[in-house]
Amino acid sequence: MSEKMNEIRQAFTEKLKKAVNTQALEEIRIEYLGKKGSVTGLMKTMKELSGEEKKTFGQQVNVLKNEITKAISEKLGQIKQKELEAEINSVPDFDLSAPPVLDRGSYHPITLVQRECEQVFKSMGFAIEEYSEIVTDYECFEALNIPKHHPARDMQDTYYLTNGQLLKSHTSAAQNAIYKKYRKALIEDGKPIKAIFPGRCFRNEATDACHENTFFQMEGVMVDKNISISNLIFFMKTMLSEVFQKDIKVRLRPGFFPFVEPGFELDISCLICGGEGCPSCKHSGWLELCPCGMIHPEVLKAGGIDPEEYTGFAFGLGLTRLAMMKYGIKDIRDLNSGNLKVLSQFTAE
Ligand code: DAH
Question: Which atom, in ligand 1's list, is nearest to the CA of 217?
Fold first, then answer.
């Protein structure tokens, strides 16, 4: 019997030496340790032996079985290591110098106008801030002088989370956080607060060519001593002239927003007819573009800024609207459609 065992041991050692991959190794394992394997076969012959012989034989078979199991697992480790090294050292089967097969992507029209606006405001010393899309009721309404049950909330129905938070209905929702972030520098170092914060906004409304439940705005604020409406007009006019690459005339009309006092609607001279009057501007010569105003004292207070000492302006530029005007996009729904035929037409100038 022990002769038989030695034969098996020798044959196994020979075969193991020759195994070069995991598959060959698995075949060997089955050949020796599998259900019909040689070692398993030895076990089966045990029943022919008497008590004492059975015991010694059983022990020897177990030793052999353990040897084989250990040898296979060691060899498996070596093979895997070799395979890994080979993979690391292999030359990639793609040509890095080949020209790209796919067309290059293009920027979304809103990204394009957003970047342009950011560039202009940055050059005028404004910080660009990012703010989350999920906000609290306080940030979106209360801190903006819109208490619970105020009718101004009706215009801004949005999507609510089960924990009471909501998807911001306007970028004004970031104002409070911005004031709190910069108030120390304003009060202690006399640095004016100048920040813009573009972002995605949401409203629970039926969609059509002019309305979307998801759109983009860019809010801007400036707070310092002696800030007046003329500062507001100057910054808006400069920014719009840069974006449209021509001198833009602006006018202010009264508008009501609880977080500004006085509040305005800022119109620009019609881009199509230059102010003469045409169907695009409903023959008025003006296009409504950007609500704005002087920040309400209560809003400054909520941000920890003394309204007796500081004043400021705020505006909420509709980036989606601006992109539509700039690129002549007629249906707002194209912007969120993911339709590349439409969206890939726009390139940075
Ligand atoms: N948050 C307003 C809206 O989405 C727009 C707005 C109006 C923003 C006046 C302002 C502002 O900063 O001063 O309807």
Answer: 4
